[in-house]
Amino acid sequence: MRRARAAAAGVVLAVAWAAILLVDPWADEEVNDLFLYRSFAALFLDGELPYRDVAFEYPPLAAPVIALPGVIGTGHDEYRLAFVALMLSLAGALVWLCAELARRTGGDPGRAMLAAAAAPLLTGAMIRTHFDLAPVVLLCAGLLAVAATRPRLGFLLLGLGTATKLFPAVAVPVAIAWLLGRGERRAALEGTAVFAAVVAGVAVVALALSPAGFADSFEYHLDRPVQVESIPALLLLALDGLGAGTAESVNAFRSDGLEHPASDGLVAVFAAVLVVAVAGFTWAARGSPHPRRLVLASLGAVAAFAAFGKVLSPQFLIWLIPLGALTFSWRMHALAAATAAAIVLTLVEFPSRYFELVAREPFPIAVVAVRDALIAVTVALAWHACSSSRRSPS
């Protein structure tokens, strides 16, 4: 039965991947990051180093992920196909990880595998034109290791994920709280030490390459304006529409943003909301020794990280795939449906209507508003499921 389910998931993944390569609207890659990645890869493979020789806005371990497909070639076609192959291999790993997490947490592995395998049909081409599957795989592998009572390995993987793209870091306090709630204080301390050592070690290497260049990568994100698809941006547009200040469009930092007199205040408010959300999931993780609580609270915190920042790029929805697949396996149908709907609405808007959104056309703004609301609903539903006092495996 297990082999049959794996084979079925493999077929679904192959069909989904063919669709995002060959069939519109799934194959639409009008807006993507491959040119940027290819440029970085060519420079890195020529011996130039991130931060020191190349201005690089991503965390340090994103560099080898971006450079790896360039080993095949840095021409347009060679790099594109090599990157597709790398993301497909990571998608296959994610299907397996979702199945193992479902098995470990009392879910249906077959349902988890099929949902994860079908995810490219919800995301469209962005899943193969961005490197976000790499940190997602490291996040899920880390959670699986912690759930399987291998905390040092788990926190090592979470550290590698954080050093690739920051969002896996929000799972760390959740995992620490879950271990403490189980009375595993030593495991929590050892895991924390491993995570800190990994992140600090990677940061030391980056600082050694160029202290100023590494600092610039942080300044880049601090200085960039509110991104046009984020919840704060939608509120700024609403204020503009009400005559309460002008939301000016800004094309900078390789994205489209908005500047408004209320920008800093809104960003601060939503940063506080994010902190409260992560703290809430961390507190909820202490309430049950069952590994489902660990996984659900961690993935809920990741959804909060996507929802409440000043940047909400379309590829952030890739981070929600494990949450959708696992809640489907746990038969939490409302949460799974909200997650899937948010991802699908992103495909409706991006990339085909992205420039209409930038031009402030009503339809894409409405689509993004509903999408962002659904991500917030997903966070709320995940927190409710974690904190519910009803008897459940979570």
Write the layout of secondary structure elements.
Blueprint lengths: L1 H21 L11 H12 L16 H6 L8 H29 L4 H10 L1 H4 L9 H15 L3 H12 L8 H11 L3 H25 L1 H13 L2 E2 L3 H11 L6 E5 L2 E5 L3 H23 L5 H18 L12 H9 L3 H17 L4 H5 L3 H26 L7
Antiparallel strand pairs: 1-3, 2-3
What would you note in describing this structure?
The protein is mainly alpha-helical and 394 residues long. The protein has one domain (2-387). It is 68% helix and 3% strand. It is built from 18 helices and 3 strands. The protein has a 3-stranded antiparallel beta sheet, with helices on one face. Helix 4 (76-104) runs antiparallel to helix 5 and helix 13 packs parallel to helix 18 (362-387). The two termini are 26 Å apart. The mean pLDDT is 96.
Summarize the structure.
The protein has 394 residues and is mainly alpha-helical.
Short key terms for the protein model shown above:
single chain, 394 residues, mainly alpha, three-stranded antiparallel sheet, 68% helix, globular
For the termini, the CA-CA separation is: 26 Å
Question: What structural class do you assign from the helix and strand content?
Answer: mainly alpha
Radius of gyration: 20 Å
Strand content: under 5%
Shape: globular
User: Please, what is the oligomeric state?
Assistant: single chain
Number of helices: 18
Q: Determine the fraction of residues in helical runs and give it as a percent range.
A: 55-70%
Strand order of the largest sheet: 1-3-2
Number of domains: 1
List how many beta strands DSSP finds: 3
The largest β sheet comes out as: 3 strands, antiparallel
Mean pLDDT: 96
Outline the low-pLDDT stretches: none
- Element pattern in H and E: HHHHHHHHHHHEHEEHHHHHH
